[in-house]
Amino acid sequence: MYGTNMVLARNLGVENFGHYNFLLTSFVGILQMMDMSSSEAFYTFISKKKQGMRFFVLYAVWLGVQMAFVLVCVAFLLPDNWISGLWLGHAKGLIILAFLSTFVVERVWNMVVNIGESIRKTIIVQVTTLCIVTAHFAIIITLVKLKLLTVSVIFAMTIFEYILAAICLSLKLGFGNVVSEEEYTYQDLLYMFRNYCTPLLAYGVIGFMYEFSDRWLLQRYGGAREQGFYFASLQLANVCLLFTTSIVKVFWKEISEAHHNNDKFKMNNLYDTISKATFFITAFVICFMFVFSKEILCLILGYDYSGGWKTFSLLLAYPLAQTLWQTCGVYLQATNNTKVYARIVSPVKMLSIPLAYIMLAPGALSWPGFGLASLGLAIKVVLSQFVGVVIMTYVISRMGNISNNMRIYAKNIAILITVAYICKFSITTILAILVCNIPLIAFIASGLIYALLVWFILVSWPTLIGFDMTALKKVYHVHSCRSV
User: Which position has the higher pLDDT, 360 or 207?
Assistant: First the structure.
């Protein structure tokens, strides 16, 4: 998916790529508000034990209600001037395509993936995901060659591909492996969902305001070009979240089971090990990318995006915060501490909304801002993420009697970025002496030496980074156990 987004960024151009991402991400917030955290409740419940057919019917009907409501509002109920104001002049047909594309991927496809993960069919899920991502990439390349690549065509192809993938994966998983003979009444099921979701209702509304306002303010005051800079940079930075993303469902499942069995030792041990390991692995990649940020941006996306390298450099801190945000959030939600999670995250997101305006609004307005465009949004996002992470790690450490690892994380960053700068300086100096200062050669040579030095530190002085090879083996074991 990341490779596909890079191809789209290069071939759509900065402005069209900005329009594409504005339309897609505007519906992320809307879906979050409509969902009311029911998708998190769905995965938590099926992770604890198998559910009856009524459970799945109820959730499927709820997804249908969400889709129908948004479609009716956009197509028939909202006045045209509202549509134009909310989506800043985009055609109604394109807006509907964007919504359906987002809904199919974020809700329908993720529902089937969650079911697969809950019954430990991780390999089947990952193979199917790889197939759909590869097919999507091949189709995009074909459209580029045929000069048929447009935003509307991308949306239409995404809808078709992911509906087909969801059907194929559902058939492969089989209903017998998913559904339990034990049934709850619909009243009991609604009570279960209500208890889980009620504390998060305000969080859903705030989440919508947070997601939509960011995109809308950047599009309004920065324009599609700055939107393109921001999202291309964010997509490129998020490559570093691949490991965290691959293990987060596994982590959720394990924590849910341990909580269901009242195994506090396992819960705390898993949280401590997974959070430290995922952060270190993410930081390992991020710190090296940071010292080569401008070269990476121009090499992968082209010189049209060189104007956004400062935004990219700053957004490289986002995956670091997001890694901890996900592990902390999973721990709190999987242990049914949704009230605690909402009380931390909601104020952070709420306070970040006026901060986004301050960063993005031009200085000439009656309520002036700094007019920093994509760079301003990057500052706001990274700052708010780290504030939330610091609070969550502190609360979890007090709740579960777990050590707060923020000092270890800061030490990891300091060590890794120092090693990365030493490698870059050494290699570029040697290449300059040899009159062979080619950026790609410097990047590859520095990367190899950087990896070797970090491995040496990991093996020889594990106390420097707060964990050793045994912890990494535990993480691998957790992941491999879910993949069989």
Answer: 360
Share of the chain above pLDDT 70, in %: 95
Burial class (CB in 10 A: 0-12, 13-18, 19+), 103: buried
* Closest among 259, 193, 206 to 388, alpha carbons compared: 206
The DSSP symbol for 179 reads B
Q: What's residue 364's pLDDT?
A: 86
Contact 104, 69 (CB under 8 A): no
Q: Is residue 84 part of a domain?
A: yes
Name which of 355, 417, 415 is nearest 385 in CA terms: 355
| Residue 171 lies in domain | 2-405+466-482
Question: How many whole angstroms separate alpha carbon 452 and alpha carbon 420?
Answer: 11
The total of structural domains in the chain comes to 1
Q: Which residue has the tokens 């003979």?
A: 181
| pLDDT average, residue stretch 449-453 | 96
- Amino acid 460: pLDDT: 81
Question: Rounded mean pLDDT of the chain?
Answer: 89
Residue 91 lies in a domain: yes
Instruction: Name the pTM for this structure.
Output: 0.85
Q: In 3D, which of 37, 14, 404, 452 has the Cα closest to residue 230?
A: 14
Which residues have a Cβ under 8 Å from the Cβ of 136 and sit 6 or more positions away?
Answer: 1, 4, 157, 158, 161
Query: Would you state the pLDDT for residue 306?
Result: 87
For residue 229, being part of any structural domain is answered with: yes
The Cβ of residue 71 has, within 10 Å, a number of other Cβ atoms equal to 14
What lies within 8 Å, CB to CB, of 344 at 6+ separation is: 388, 391, 392, 395
* Closest C-alpha among 21, 375, 380 to residue 222: 375
* 8 Å CB contact between 368 and 362: yes
Task: Name the nearest CA neighbour of 23 among 64, 74, 65.
Answer: 74
Average pLDDT on 398-423 reads: 90
The answer as to whether 423 is a domain residue is no
Report d(CA 260, CA 45) in Å as an integer: 10
Kind and range of the H or E run holding 262: none
- Estimate to the nearest angstrom the gap between the alpha carbon of 96 and the chain centroid: 23
